[in-house]
Amino acid sequence: MNPHLFISSILISLLLNACSSSGQQPQWLDKPSAEYPQSQYLSATGQADKRETAGDRALANLAKIFEVAIKEQSMDFSSSESVSSHGLTESRNEQRVARHVSTEARQVLEGTKVVEYWQGDAGQVHALAVLNKSDASRRFNQDIANADRRVAQLVSYASHEAPNAISALTALNQARASQSERDNLNRSLSIVSTSSNQGKYSTEQLEELIRQALATLQFAVQADKETLVTELQSAIGNLGIQYQPQSSTVLSAVMDTEPVEQKQGWYWLRGSYELSLSTGGTVIAKKRWPIKVSATDKGMVQQRAKDSINSQLPNHVFELLSSAKI
Q1: What kind and span of H or E run contains 83?
Q2: Whose CA is closest to 130, among 186, 196, 55, 20?
Q3: Tens-level pLDDT at each residue, the chain (326 residues)
Q4: What dihedral do alpha carbons 189, 193, 199, 202 form, nearest 10°?
Q5: CATH 3.30.70.260 at 217-322, yes or no
Q6: Distance (Å) of CA 223 to CA 97, 220, 277, 307
Q7: Under a CB-based contact definition with an 8 Å cutoff, are residues 107 and 21 in contact?
Q8: 3-state DSSP assignment of residue 120
Q9: CB contact at 8 A, 258 and 290
Q10: Cα separation, 122 vs 119, whole angstroms
Q11: What is the four-CA torsion angle of 288, 284, 177, 145, rounded to 10 degrees?
Q12: Residue-by-residue DSSP string for 11-57
């Protein structure tokens, strides 16, 4: 190796080490905006014993700015009442939309970079991560546009092309999921931009379309236990689906349970129940859910199992319908 090149490489290495290790504390450690203006960048710092870990923590801390609770829209069909009018009993469906947090999503964003490192006298390594706001804004707007196209295509399919009401319902439920993702993207956009991006549809509009699709369905029901037949009728009623014993679309339920076991003073009942949907004799959807209940009184275990199933059955029926393949 050329001795001059060798000496130069050593000098460069020493200079880099001096900049990234002990010495005067850099300004960005307390005030990142001094070097990366807030008008152009989002920034966050992290520290650890190791350089790589410090960088990872800086990235994670920056991602926390975008940390949102992804709220999947879950139709809550547990509220309904019966009213009498002129001797007739009518089921009044008071469907509500329950927004519940299904997952905490940390969005580690494309384009985020660790741009600075510094090691203090105590040996701790500090790192600075930044995100260019204009670049992120372009990416969010593009993702939002893609989501809007998906929602519009699914709604159009449900309205004009779906061969039956169940296919339309499945498409509308997918549209609602895409709209939920779009809403989160729009919230993230507002962090890096002063503007927001309003779409053609809202989650509330899609939920209303789903309710309308449910109201067009007519089901017969069957089960291996007579009590389950009654519960299925109640569940579809809460969904707004019409009970029609002669319908060619049949909702079926089968429950399998093990013998009640006693362990440490508690009685346990375990098993599962399966829902299936068929039309014209062909099964188009099938799902199974576990049963696990306990009570200190053996006589209460069966009742608790029944209560557990009943409380979840409308939403489980909706899950089944949304997964139908036609």
Answers
A1: strand 80-85
A2: 55
A3: 444 444 444 343 434 444 444 468 999 998 999 899 999 999 999 999 999 999 999 998 998 888 754 444 455 554 444 333 333 334 344 443 333 323 333 445 688 999 999 998 888 999 999 999 999 999 999 999 999 999 999 999 999 999 888 999 999 999 999 999 999 888 889 999 987 778 899 999 999 999 999 999 999 999 988 888 999 999 999 999 999 999 999 999 999 999 999 998 899 999 999 999 999 889 999 999 999 999 999 989 989 998 999 999 999 999 999 888 76
A4: 60
A5: no
A6: 28, 11, 12, 17
A7: no
A8: coil
A9: no
A10: 8
A11: 150
A12: HHHHHHHHHHSSSSPPGGGT-GGGTS-TTTEEEEEEEESSHHHHHHH
Secondary structure letter of residue 161 according to DSSP: I
pTM for this prediction = 0.74
**At CA 201, angle to CA 198 and CA 207, rounded to 5?**
135
Domain ranges of the chain: 20-132, 135-214, 217-322
CA dist list (Å): 318 to 147, 235, 324: 23, 9, 10
- CB count, 10 Å around CB of 304? 16
The Cα 58–Cα 136 span in angstroms is 17
Count of all residues that appear for the chain in the document: 326
Name the residue with tokens 């989160």: 184
Rounded distance, CA 80 to CA 238, Å?
Answer: 6
Question: In a 3-state reduction of DSSP, which class is residue 299?
Answer: helix
